[in-house]
Every structure is written in structure tokens, then in C-alpha cells.
Amino acid sequence: MRFDEAYSGNVFIGSHPSYEESRVVLYGMPMDWTVSYRPGSRFGPARIREVSIGLEEYSPYLDRELEEINYFDAGDIPLPFGNPQKSIDTIEGYIDGLMKDNKIPLGMGGEHLVSWPVMKAVYKKYKDLAVIHMDAHTDLREHYEGEPLSHSTPIRKIAEHIGPENVYSFGIRSGMKEEFQWAKENGMHISKFEVLEPLKEILPKLAGRPVYVTIDIDVLDPAHAPGTGTVDAGGITSRELLASIHEIARSEVNVVGADLVEVAPVYDASEQTANTASKLIREMMLGWVK
């Protein structure tokens, strides 16, 4: 896919027609080849775009509207069905191109494994990169039933790549005991159950640094986001997640890339998950693009 060609399908509300004039590139990663429970997240990006038509372009939280920032919806990266390794390589190559053009990548998943090649590509440009990770799950496994390419492994992969001390996880409420032990022994930060308050404590320590933010929609309680592959009770509210996005916006960190993953529309007939994700994407763009 060429970056500078306008996407012919539905685009996210307010998308600018010019790649060259846009600072942010919104794109989809429609992959769910390695999920361990329920598939369907490959349909997330398309549905998030479709429901965005119901959004206002103005954010009363931030007093900004989408026309104040130029962003380009490039559509979905064409990924080879059922081939995780080739898909990962394709995503990394795509992001390499965005980094070369000095764009801010904003991805929509897709399963969480898609975040790994994006973070890897962003790290090539920003060697002082820190990762903020919001999720119900640790995602620190080395493999899932012998398979290292799994949606339960991306945070372990990036932690080993950039150093565990540069990875900060929030909202975690599920994972193997060995995953928590590995994080503790290797200096990785994990905040269990909560996001906003521990995030407030960490952000000043990251002031001035390039930061990549990855959000798994299942950090929300299933009452707020039932449309995901691995629901997990006891999560945060959509209000707290919005407040956390705005807290990052008010901080002095430099967000150089982000993604929102694991929206699986088929499990939510009400479409509240896709609509929530759409609003989150709007707030991420308006809050993090200075």
C-alpha cells in the first residue's frame, strides 16, 4: 500500500485528503491470527471508522476539533491471512516508511501482537523510547503453548528489546505468576488494577522523553467494552480511560506513536465498544498531537 494514496473505503471522521500535509497517519492492522480465545479483532479497524460518523469533531474535554490537526487515514495495511511472521514483517516495513517521512503513527488493531513490530520500528528512530501500556493482561509470556508469535507476548518482546525498565504497564489484572515475577526481577513497572492515579505518578519521570502508548480495549471492564476477544472482569471505566488519555495530554511527554487494539465488533451487538474506541481515537489525536 502506498502511504500517499487516499483510502477508497470509509475513513475516520475529519480525515485530511493529503498524506504530505498530515502530521498523523491513522491506519488499521486487521490481524487476529494468533488469538488464544475469540477471534474477530481483524474487523475492528473498519468498524471503528464506520461508527466514527456519529462522533462530533469537537472535543469538549480538550476544547479542540479535528480540523485543528492534519491527519490522514491510510486505510488498513493488507496483511496475508493466517501468516503471523509475514504480517509482522509487513507492518514493520510500513511503519519504517512512516518514520522516514516523520509521521506519527496511530494504529488500530487487530490483536495485540500487531503492536510489537510498530514499537520495534519506532524504536529505530527514538532510542530513548519509553512504552506506556494499558491492558487487562500482562502480555509478558515468552510463548503461548510453544508459539512465540502470540497476542500474549508483545510486551515481553518490546521489554527485552528496549529494556524492561523503559516499559510501564497499567490496569493489569490478569497474567501468570511467572510474568509478574519476571517484571519485578527485571525492573519493569506494573500497576495492578488501576490506571489514572499510578499514571499521574509516572508521567513526570518521563517528561521530555519520546513515548509510545499502546492501549488494549480490554483494560476497560466488560461492562464498558464487551466487544473484545478476551474479556476480563474488574476493569476500569471508560471515564477513567478518557481521563488517563487527557492526563498524558497535559504532561510533558512526547507521544511519538500509539495504537488501540483488540476491538472485536462481533461480540457487541450494541456497538458500544466500537463507538467507545472511536471516541478514544479522537481524544488521542486531539490530546497528543501538540
Automatic annotation (TrEMBL):
Transmembrane intervals: none
UniProt record, GO biological process: putrescine biosynthetic process from arginine, via agmatine; spermidine biosynthetic process
Cofactors demanded by this protein: Mn(2+)
Family: Belongs to the arginase family. Agmatinase subfamily.
CDD domains reported for this sequence: Agmatinase-like_2 (cd11593)
One Pfam match: Arginase
Function: Catalyzes the formation of putrescine from agmatine.
Gene Ontology MF, one: metal ion binding
Cofactor annotation remark: Binds 2 manganese ions per subunit.
Name listed for the protein in its UniProt record: Agmatinase
Listed pathway(s): Amine and polyamine biosynthesis; putrescine biosynthesis via agmatine pathway; putrescine from agmatine: step 1/1
EC number: 3.5.3.11
Positions that bind Mn(2+): H112, D135, H137, D139, D216, D218
Manganese listed as a keyword: yes
Top-rank taxon, per record: Bacteria
Catalyzed reactions per annotation: agmatine + H2O = urea + putrescine
Record keywords: Hydrolase, Manganese, Metal-binding, Polyamine biosynthesis, Putrescine biosynthesis, Spermidine biosynthesis
Top-rank EC class of the record's enzyme: hydrolase
Coiled coil (UniProt feature): none
